[in-house]
Amino acid sequence: METYDSQYSCTKIVYRRFLFLILLRMKEYMQKNKFFLSCLTVTLIVNLTLTTAHSGLASAQQQNNTSMQPQRTRSMATTTTTTNTTNVNIVLVHGTWVDGSSWSKVIPILQNAGHKVIAVQLPLHSLADDIATVKRAIDLVGGQVILVGHSYGGFVITNAAYNNPKVKGLVYLAAFAPKEGQSLSNFVDIAKFPKGFLVVDSAGFIYINPAMFPQAFAQDVDPAEANIMAAVQKPFSTSILAEKSGPPAWKQLPTWYQVSENDHAIPPDAERMFAKQINATTISLPSSHASPLSHPNEVAQLILNATKGGK
After folding, report:
1. Residue 307 near residue 146, CB atoms below 8 Å
2. pLDDT per residue over 94-120, tens digit each?
């Protein structure tokens, strides 16, 4: 580009001098024909203007190309430094009687560790709908995924992760881990609950009596917070009790399990049975059923261990 510009400048100077000599030599003749002089002068001015404009355009284009290159480099550098391709993404799946906000203390810890997190909102109308909801979340979050299920959420992740190449591990928190063909009714007998403990609405959706909720579900959570949980609890359809689980993903994937030793919703012995059944890396916490709220640091650390494939 520099050689071209130098050659072009020399040519431009010679051309201008040639035109100037023509003007001088023909001055006498031109004076006799003012009209012709005017036309020639206009022609020369136009030519000189065009050559000057072309030179300025070439110079501006060169400067523009030079200034644009560093900007492109800076943009690429920014993209490279802000994109983290090493972290596994995390999908959190709540159980019955709570919603995605039950992960509110765990999510910031996982995000601060650099992970992309989605806490799904299960419809709780049917097991099939809940499984479909989690599968959509897996596709939405993209990349490799760790699925985390609390309580009934263990039923959901057991099925949603089956034969899904995006899922790299399963974490169960005081959760059901069913075998193929088992249903929630294999583990939960509504008839054995104390009278007045469950409230069923006109559409067949089951609540926990709000007055009994804190002690049954979250006795180690701040009482004010537990009362709010009781007020906003998400009921589930009675139809879910009979829906059978499909082939279990825990036979295909590494698993982690957290036992809540003070659980009043699922017996701790049953949780240990599930952990052994799925050959999980297991921890125990002195927790109520609501371990993500009462022990968020320990729960988050177990999930982070799973993202690294560690114990």
Report:
1. yes
2. 999 999 999 999 999 999 999 999 999
Q: What is the pLDDT of residue 310?
A: 74
Half-sphere exposure of residue 168, counting CA atoms within 13 Å on the CB side? 17
Architecture label for domain 89-307: 3-Layer(aba) Sandwich (3.40)
How many alpha carbons fall within 13 Å on the CB side of residue 60?
Answer: 6
Domain boundaries, the chain: 2-82, 89-307
Q: What element of type H or E holds 91?
A: strand 89-93
The one catalytic residue among 38, 104, 126, 151: 151
Active site residue 6: no
d(CA 220, CA 285): 12
Report yes or no on whether pTM surpasses 0.70: yes
Q: How far is CA 166 from CA 114, 132, 138, in A?
A: 19, 15, 8
The residue written with tokens 């989690």 in the block is: 134
Please report, for residues 34, 45, 169, 171, the alpha-carbon distance to residue 41 in angstroms, rounded to integers and kept in the order given.
Answer: 10, 6, 84, 88
CA 278 to chain centre: 28
pLDDT value for 25: 53
Collect all residues with Cβ–Cβ distance below 8 Å to 168 and sequence separation of at least 6.
Answer: 88, 144, 145, 146, 253, 254, 309
d(CA 219, CA 294): 9
